């Protein structure tokens, strides 16, 4: 049954006018006709089966029949902090990460990030990435939308994991003006605070409000840095009892000073076998392996 994301109030018995883009796809691409069954969802955790009631040049409407609570979220909450890659690589990574159950995505600019974004382009790119995530949810059946957080500059983001005010001193790192600073969030991982309350409850851990930049990720959060030179393997890890924060580099990988800064912030270097993986492969391989060990692939 075709599924469509609609940022609208949905309830059984209501007749919903599909957004123009959704209507065009349903009628022009999928060739749906009056009387056919469809499913709508709006990110509230449920899905709403219905019947296409009208379709034509002025759009389409769906009469919603019922509400179904379909739980398709992984019991293993993983946040992906992804070094921004160029073009289709980033889209591919986000799309497949959603299919693999990622809980949220944090885009990060690093020294070797190729993409340079103005403020206007950064806003559009983030909206585009959220659209990629929403479309992936349509395809894979998820009814909760993993949020794409504000783009963060790596050094400023790392600062949120430290008690010292300037942990990068002595490592040769400064904040990189890769995009307009007025759009980059410099508050650490706080954009994920509301998200992390839910996974903590899923894992049976405490659900606490953010009292510091570190609080949203929990005191016991497992921080993993994907590193082909890392000394940690998945077989070395005990089953996690808190959310996982997975850090993956951009096309050129991590700058040595960035790697040192991450290690000092509590990230452990995780090696995925003897081969060097591309940026669009590394995070997905790690997500699949984590799901196989402790998530809903097990």
What's the Cα radius of gyration? 20 Å
Number of DSSP strands?
Answer: 11
- For CATH, the homologous superfamily of the largest domain is named as SPOUT methyltransferase, trefoil knot domain
Average per-residue pLDDT, rounded, comes to 84
- Major β-sheet annotation: 6 strands, parallel
Taken from the alpha-carbon principal axes, the silhouette is: elongated
**What ranges have pLDDT less than 50 throughout 5 or more consecutive residues?**
177-219
- What is the domain total for the residues? 2
CATH class membership of the largest domain? Alpha Beta
CATH T-level topology of the largest domain? Alpha/beta knot
Quaternary organization: single chain
Following the backbone from N to C, one meets helices and strands in this order, namely EEHEEEEHEHEHHEEHEH
What is the strand content?
A: 15-25%
Q: Helical segment tally?
A: 7
């Amino acid at each position: 049954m075709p599924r469509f994301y609609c940022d609208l109030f949905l309830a059984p018995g209501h007749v919903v006018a599909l957004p123009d883009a959704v209507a065009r796809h349903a009628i022009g691409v999928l060739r749906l006709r009056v009387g056919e069954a469809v499913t709508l969802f709006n990110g509230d955790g449920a899905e709403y089966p219905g019947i296409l009631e009208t379709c034509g040049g002025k759009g389409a409407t769906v009469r919603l029949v019922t509400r179904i609570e379909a739980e398709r979220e992984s019991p293993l909450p993983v946040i992906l902090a992804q070094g921004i890659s160029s073009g289709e690589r980033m889209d591919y990574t986000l799309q497949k990460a959603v299919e693999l159950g990622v809980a949220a995505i944090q885009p990060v600019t690093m020294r070797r990030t190729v993409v340079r974004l103005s403020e206007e382009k950064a806003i559009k790119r983030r909206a585009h990435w959220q659209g990629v995530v929403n479309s992936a949810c349509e395809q894979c059946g998820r009814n909760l939308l993993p949020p794409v957080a504000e783009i963060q500059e790596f050094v400023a983001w790392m600062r949120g994991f430290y008690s010292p005010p300037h942990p990068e001193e002595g490592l040769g790192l400064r904040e990189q003006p890769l995009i307009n600073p007025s759009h980059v969030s410099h508050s650490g991982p706080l954009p994920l605070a509301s998200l992390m309350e839910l996974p903590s409850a899923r894992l049976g851990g405490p659900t606490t409000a953010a009292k510091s930049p570190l609080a949203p990720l929990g005191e016991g959060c497992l921080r993993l840095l994907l590193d082909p030179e890392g000394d940690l393997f998945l077989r070395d890890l005990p089953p996690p009892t808190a959310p996982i924060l997975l850090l993956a580099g951009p096309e050129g990988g991590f700058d040595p000073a960035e790697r040192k800064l991450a290690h000092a912030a509590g990230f452990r270097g995780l090696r995925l076998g003897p081969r060097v993986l591309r940026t669009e492969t590394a995070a997905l391989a790690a997500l699949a392996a984590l799901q196989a060990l402790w998530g809903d692939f097990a």
